[in-house]
Design brief:
The complex is a heterodimer of chains A (399) and B (403). Chain A has 399 residues and is α/β, with parallel strands linked by helices. Chain A is built from twelve helices and 15 strands. In chain A, the strands form three sheets. In chain A, strands 1, 2, 5, 6, 7, 8, 9, 10, 11, 14 and 15 form an eleven-stranded mixed beta sheet that branches. The chains are: A alpha/beta (399), B alpha/beta (403). Chains A and B meet through α4, α5, α6, β6 and α7 of A and α4, α5, β5, α6 and α7 of B.
């Protein structure tokens, strides 16, 4: 059996820096979504997001290097340092780096264009241009840690992190590299926030219901977005007791999806979940929990719940939705996987924050109170607006 | 999980391309044969002043796309859909149709729909946040081209977007090959797309990396890159599936190597250590230790790249392998370059004709290989490498074999 161990996790999250503070936040059922003070939301429908605040990059990165890094690179390099501390050893130089990010360096591009307008095309700062590529965070990680294996960055909306994990895992089982840094990174900025708001994608106050993310809830009306970085140390042969093992992946696309929304192709979502379960070498009945993609959007959550019911019928395992803790896109999708790996390590399911009343089509109720559970395999979903789907299975055992 | 099995042979059954020397593969190859470059004065962004004004532009493409389909696409999306459509049409010629529901799209792009994002940004400055239509910016994310191709061609096997700077499309093709070899997909439509935009045109200029004249890779007097745009896709299948469909096999994708210099955010390692390892990695994916007959180089025309790549080639395969840079025809298509040049490499294999490095009168003292100057060279080629390297020190080398 080819599985990949996760032996270290580094977290720079809204409200939590480090894996244990992140665990504490999940265990306490605390959301990190707050009223935005980074930019003006006047005139918009939504006013909240999950923003990284109590974090000092200089605790992890030398000042002279810090000047060369944008916010994404600072989050990712710091999270990589934390992941190595957590794992207890640095990966060997032959290791690869695969990073996922949904929107990547949008803010750096905006900063560059501001300078372009102010100073002219010939005098914009080269340092901003160097950081305007989406792979800058992965590149800085490689330079900082002298990692010379593959180094690539996947940008597939909500599926970015799992797509990066899928690639990195395939290279470890193929034998190209002994280990890899898998990670995700994201930054909340005014441009992305205001466009999503204009599209009606963000959770907002409506008909006496307050602005909040409500995954799978019948009152849901949108997502909140988040930021930060999650970095995972992945090894073919673990150097310590792992959190869990990446055991299988499935990929598909919902051909009914529109450019900026979810479609109705629950059969294709179910096929991706089934493919991940098959790739892990397990049966449907071996799945002990689902960490869902559900983000509080009307169509996205409906699509996923239909797919879960299509695949599992009346035997749906416990379902946990984590997006109300840290928002959509946060860490490029990395916090979802981190939460599932903590569940596996601690053998404990988290509460689906934000859920209160079932969607009328639901025949299952998400987990609402944290509880101990015997977790052998957890299915982790990422279902993107626009149709991309990547699912993963994480397992407790190496085989 | 199933591991990518490198003994599983991969067939290329379709190629599509659009760049400054042609709007389809026949036009592109004709330009290659006739040593005709597609580099001229920059016509985009009128009224804006840049330190240099040379570019390899594609020109108008409105006549190549369905207007109803194209309304919500970026220029990078449109270039991608044009090239992918050509590739899929060729793969389906005189063969059972491709299983589209099992076809994954894997695209490399550096900036995606940033050109439209820039316009959106300028409009917002003038008109205010709430007064500019957001439909124009929906395709700004670098996931745009993959999503657009999958939507336009109704492909259901998944979408992946690789934003690894100028190594993006090479990485996207390598990734796609592994998805086929691990049976996560049955068909891959893999390549890259990048439209010229202000940020890249201005950015490479402020880095002083742009030649004021058409680029001359490996030349003694080289001064930098020429910025280009374009898209290309390859249809890749497992060999046995392609045979079973009755498809014509154009070439074989034997494997790839992907590495990182871990050296500098924008400059390559001076000895080309990562590039060397990428070529070795690609060759290692073929069990028979193949002899390389030709290398389609990254060859950007910058002082650092061409010197480092030459050292890397010398170390990886020696000094006897002819090398050329197709960027002398159509400039640096950035995130698309790995795909555009992969298609050129496949065409070279099919035609047994190596494209030259145009305008190369005198090679630099530190560029000591045979760079095939000026005119195409007929030669027997079985195994060839196509190199792409990018910002951040990412390197990808693809190994192709004559079918």
């Amino acid at each position: 059996m080819n599985r990949v161990a996760i032996t270290g996790i580094g977290i720079v999250a809204p409200g939590a820096v480090g894996i244990e503070p992140f665990r504490a936040m999940l265990d306490a059922g605390m959301t990190s979504i707050r009223t935005i003070d980074r930019f003006d939301t006047a005139g918009l429908s939504a006013h909240t997001a999950a923003l990284v605040t109590d974090f000092k990059a200089r605790d992890y990165i030398l000042a002279m290097k810090l000047r060369r890094m944008n916010t994404l690179s600072r989050y990712a390099v710091s999270a990589a340092r934390l992941a190595i501390d957590d794992a207890g050893a640095q990966p060997p130089s032959e290791s690869g780096v695969a990073i996922g990010t949904a929107f990547g360096p949008v803010q750096t591009s905006v900063d560059y264009m501001q300078e372009y307008v102010a100073k002219g095309a010939a005098l914009a700062p080269p340092q901003l241009f160097a950081e305007s590529v989406a792979n800058a965070p992965g590149s800085h990680i490689a330079i900082e840690l002298d990692l010379r294996g593959f180094n690539l960055t996947v940008t597939q909306r909500e599926s970015s992190l799992l797509a990066a994990a899928m690639f990195a895992s395939s290279q470890i089982v193929k034998g190209t590299v002994p280990s890899a840094i898998i990670g995700g990174v994201e930054e909340v900025n005014e441009m992305v926030f205001s466009v999503l708001d204009r599209l009606g994608a963000l959770a907002h106050a409506e008909d006496g219901v307050s602005e909040a993310v409500r995954p799978f809830d019948r009152r849901r009306n949108g997502m909140s977005i988040g930021e930060g970085s999650a970095i995972f140390i992945a090894e073919g042969t673990p150097s310590r007791q792992p959190y869990g093992w990446l055991a299988g992946f499935g990929i598909a696309r919902d051909t009914t999806a529109t450019i900026s929304d979810w479609g109705t192709g629950d059969a294709q979502v179910a096929a991706a979940m089934a493919a991940a379960i098959d790739d892990a070498g397990i049966q449907l009945s071996d799945v002990d929990a689902i960490y869902a993609s559900a983000n509080g959007t009307k169509r996205g959550d409906l699509l996923e719940l239909r797919a879960i019911q299509r695949l599992f019928g009346d035997s749906v395992p416990p379902v946990v939705a984590t997006k109300a803790y840290f928002g959509e896109y946060a860490a490029g999708g990395g916090f979802d996987l981190a939460a599932a790996l903590l569940a596996m390590r601690d053998q404990k399911l988290h509460a689906s924050l934000g859920f209160g009343e079932r969607d009328p089509e639901m025949r299952f109720t998400p987990v609402t109170v944290p509880r101990a559970a015997n977790l052998r395999n957890i299915l982790v979903n990422s279902i993107s607006a626009g149709g991309g789907i990547v699912c993963a299975v994480i397992s407790r055992e190496a085989a | 999980m199933r591991k990518p099995d490198t003994s599983t042979r991969l067939a290329i059954t379709g190629i599509g391309i659009i760049c400054s020397i042609g709007r389809n593969r026949d036009e592109v190859w004709q330009s290659i044969v006739e040593s005709r470059a597609g580099i001229g004065k920059l016509t985009k962004f009128p009224g804006e002043t840049f330190p240099t004004d040379v570019a390899a532009e594609v020109g108008e493409i409105d006549d190549l796309v369905d207007k109803r389909e194209s309304k919500r696409m970026s220029r990078s999306d449109l270039l991608a859909v044009i090239a992918a459509s050509e590739a899929i049409a060729q793969a389906n010629e005189n063969a059972s149709p491709l299983p589209r529901e099992r076809a994954v799209v894997s695209t490399g792009t550096s900036t995606g729909g940033l050109l439209e994002g820039e316009s959106f940004y300028f409009d917002r400055l003038v008109r205010g946040r709430g007064r500019v239509a957001v439909s124009r910016v929906l395709q700004q994310p670098t996931s745009g081209p993959s999503d657009a191709v999958a939507r336009a061609l109704n492909l259901g096997g998944g979408v992946l977007s690789n934003a690894t700077a100028c190594a993006s499309a090479g990485a996207a093709i390598g990734m796609a090959g592994d998805l086929l070899r691990s049976h996560h997909a049955d068909v891959a439509v893999a390549g890259g797309s990048d439209a010229l935009c202000r940020l890249t045109y201005s950015g490479f200029n402020v880095l002083q990396a742009v030649d004021e004249n058409p680029c001359t890779p490996f030349a003694a007097d080289r001064k930098g890159i020429t910025l280009g745009e374009g898209a290309s896709y390859l249809v890749i299948e497992r060999w046995d599936d392609a045979v079973a469909r009755g498809a014509k096999i154009l070439a074989e994708l034997c494997g790839y190597g992907a590495t990182c210099d871990a050296h500098h955010p924008t400059a390559p390692h001076e000895d080309g250590r990562g590039a060397q390892a990428a070529m070795r990695g690609a060759l290692a994916e073929s069990a028979d230790a193949p002899r390389v007959d030709y290398i389609n180089a990254h060859g950007t025309g910058t002082l650092l790249n061409d010197s480092a790549e030459t050292k890397a080639i010398l170390a990886a395969v020696g000094d006897a392998v002819p090398v050329s840079s197709s960027k002398s025809y159509f400039g640096h298509t950035l995130g698309a370059s790995g795909g555009v040049e992969a298609v050129i490499t496949v065409l070279a294999l099919q035609n047994q004709l190596a494209p030259p490095t145009l305008r190369l009168d005198t090679a630099a003292a530190d560029c000591t290989l045979d760079y095939i100057p000026h005119t195409p060279r007929p030669m027997a080629m079985t195994n060839v490498l196509s190199n792409t390297f990018g910002f951040g020190g990412s390197n990808v080398s693809l190994l192709f074999r004559r079918a």
